[in-house]
Structure formats: C-alpha cells, structure tokens
Amino acid sequence: MTPKGTALVTAAQGIGRAIALRLANDGFDVEVNDLPQPSSQVVHRPTGITSKGTALVTGAAQGIGRAIALRLANDGFDVAVNDLPSKTADLAKVVAEIRASGRGSSAHVANVSDEHQVRRLVETVVLTHGGLDVMVANAGLATWKSLLDTTAEEWDRTMAVNSRGTFLCYKYAAKQMVQQGRGGRIIGACSVAGKIGFPFLATYCASKFAVRGLTQAAAQELGKYRITVNAYAPGAIDSIMLLTISLARIIQYQVSSLAELSTKDTAMSPELWLDAQKKVSPLGRLGTANEVESLVSFIASQESQFITGQSAVLLLPLAIIIVTPAARAPAIAVRCPLPASRRLPPGARRSPGSLRSCPSRHLLPVLYAHAPGGFPTSSLVRLFLTQPSYVPYIQSNPS
After folding, report:
1. How far apart are CA 19 and CA 290, in angstroms?
2. Beta-sheet strands, E only, within 345-395
3. Which residues pair with 322 in a beta bridge?
4. Which of 12, 114, 187, 310 has a CA 20 to 30 Å removed from the CA of 59?
5. Distances (CA, A) of 95 to 58, 81, 204, 290
6. Residue 87: other Cβ atoms inside 10 A
7. Which GO biological process categories is it annotated with (predicted)?
C-alpha cells in the first residue's frame, strides 16, 4: 500500500504514542521524536478490518446522506438507507452500490416526521439486520425566506422534518440500543445555522438550534448506556440543499424606516450565490459531501467513544452575506447604544452608510454588498473590529 505521506509526532509516550500508532494505521509513515534522548522510528501500518454492525441513515437517497451511507459501508458497516417514497428509485441505486462493496444493505421508505413510521423503520431495520449500532438522522430541509413572509405552515413543515424528525430518530434508536445493551452511536444533522443565526433562514436556524440542544440533552441521558450522541454541523457544502437555496429568490431589503419594512424578491443566479459563499469561506471554497462523510465516519467509530454532546462544525464562514440595492447604503440594522467605554473615540466619525450592530459573542460580521448587476462586485465593505466580542462596525466603501 502506498503511504499517504509522512507524519512527525513530537512525543513517544502516552497520547503522542497513541497518535503515532493511529496515523500509522491510517496509512502514514510516522517519524517519532522525543526528549531528552531524541530518537526516531517508523511505525508501520497494521492491516485488517472486521464487521462493525448495522447503521441506519435517513435522507440517504442523494447528497450528503448518500455519501455518509456509502462511507459507513466502506468502513465495515451493513447500512440501511431511508428516504421518502418519491426517492425509491434513488434509494435502490444506493443499496446496489453498498452491496457491490461487499456489505449488506436494505432500503426503507418512511417519513421521519411521522412517529409511527419512524418506530416501524427502526423495527424493520432490526428485523432485517439483527440490530442497530449507528443511527444517522440526516434527513432535513431548508427554505430561504424572509421572516416577515414566512407562514406558520412553512415553519411547522421545517420543524417537523428537522427537529421532530431528529427527535424521533434519536428516541427510537436509543430505545433499541438500550435494549441491546452494547452501546451505540446516535448522530444528528445540525448546521452552522444551529450555532449562528442567518438572515432569511429563520425557520431553518431555529430547527437546527433545536437539534443542537437535543443532542446535548440526549448525550447526558444516554451516556450511562454507553451511547454517544453527537451531530455534524456543516457550513456551506456543495450539495443538493445548498443548490436548492441558491435557486430560491434572494430577498432584498427596501427600507424607508425601521418601522416600515417591505421585502422584494430579486433574481440571482446560482453561480453568483455560490461564488458569494466561497468568498466568505476561510478556505476560499465550498465544502464537499465527502468531507462531511469523513467526520461522520469518525463519530461512528470506536475512536470517538469519549466524545459526546458535540455538534462539530465543518468550516465556519467568515461573514454573513446580504445583498442590498445598488443605489442605497446598507439597508437595515439593529441600532443599539454602546457603553461609553465602547464608543468611538473623540474626533472619530462614522461614514453616512455605516452601521452599528448590537454586542454579541455569537454573531458573525455581516457583509452588505451593493449589487447593481448581481453579486459579487468590487463594491464590498470594509470591516472595522471594535472588540473580539462585538460584531464589527460596517462601513460603505464604493471603491
């Protein structure tokens, strides 16, 4: 086997030794160095893999769910896949791919927001495969819409799938794992939007914040059964869901005053929207489903047995982007007074188009982009940080 490369570990005992052995197992040639008598050695990769049990992945007909299902099969699990009735043909293809890799697989149609269907889903998987060791509650949906225009029905639909569906998957998977008495892994689909609020994604953010809280609470309840509960929280991933949001109409604010707010849909091509997401990525690109599957693979493994209650972020964006009309200054902001110690120093002034946001330790900078011909343009804004714990001042900059 060709090594992945060479790794240097600067400790030969304890945790350092364990890391060196693991990297060797992952395919690296490993150089180990320590003091006071420097020495180095190559740790060779052991071989062999055993069957790991059964995993169930919901929302597995396409995108991230499909990638996770295939990865867990590659890791040695038999994998049951689930999706809606409209995705039956796609599910069959995933099952065929998994079986071609030498692992067992079965397709199960169910709506995760329906308690009876989720209970039957888990029961059927157990009857088919003999047990359940990993539950990946991946199914979800997102709608890009102004809070003011969101209907109660749209709110209920998003919460039913993203929050209620995750709760039901956690509940019935946990019941089965407790009954089996051999522990297990429960894994949910959170999001960066479950840690930071984003404009036009109010219902989605609320549903993912719920997943994060559920994950933390469930982890504390189920730890005594050797069941870990974690979630993966992707940023902008090049996926079907992101493309769906991209095809939505981007809301532009048209504001005459803070008391009078109306919204207007303005078309934006998927290419421009995706390019905007790349610009606020620390790595300058979108994430991939393969990168999400790698995180889930680790969470599902025995190596993660001391990790629980976490919603692990993949690529936190540097800023939130809002598109505003070209002829206007940034359209809207929450204006709140700062303590005297936080105000601009004497003699300093803020440009006419600048905004000040409320203090928060959890919000991201907001980029307001003037977009006469679509986004992105050269007319971006300059961000002036006042304190690490504050959202920065935002200043219009026509250059």
Report:
1. 23
2. 366-370, 382-384, 393-395
3. 368
4. 310
5. 13, 7, 30, 18
6. 20
7. fatty acid biosynthetic process
Amino acid, res. 119: R
Compute how many other C-beta atoms are within 10 angstroms of the C-beta atom of residue 199: 16
Would you call 379 helix, strand, or coil by DSSP?
A: coil
Pairing between β-strand 29-32 and β-strand 42-43 as defined by DSSP bridges: antiparallel
Alpha-carbon 295 to chain mean position: 10
CA–CA separation, 90 and 63 (whole Å) = 11
127-151 confidence digits (pLDDT tens): 999 999 999 999 988 877 888 989 9
Q: What gap in Å lies between CA 213 and CA 369, rounded to an integer? A: 33
Burial code of 113-145, b = ≥16 C-beta within 10 A, e = fewer? beeeebeebbebbbeebeebbbbbbbbbbbbbb
Torsion of CA 301, 302, 305, 311, to 10 degrees: -10
204 is annotated as an active-site residue: yes
The answer to pTM > 0.70 is: no
* Given 170, 204, 232, 368, the catalytic residue: 204
Contacts of 50 (CB under 8 A, 6+ apart): 76
Rounded (10°) CA dihedral 29, 30, 31, 33? 180
pLDDT digits (tens, 9 = 90+) for 284-335: 656 665 677 788 998 999 888 888 998 876 554 444 433 333 333 333 333 3
Is 208 catalytic? The answer is yes
Hey, which residues does 288 pair with through a beta bridge? Answer: none
Where would I find the H helices in the chain? 14-25, 63-74, 88-100, 115-129, 152-159, 165-180, 202-222, 240-247, 270-279, 289-300
Position 188 pLDDT exceeds 50: yes
Distances (CA, A) of 338 to 110, 149, 362, 389, 390: 51, 31, 17, 13, 10
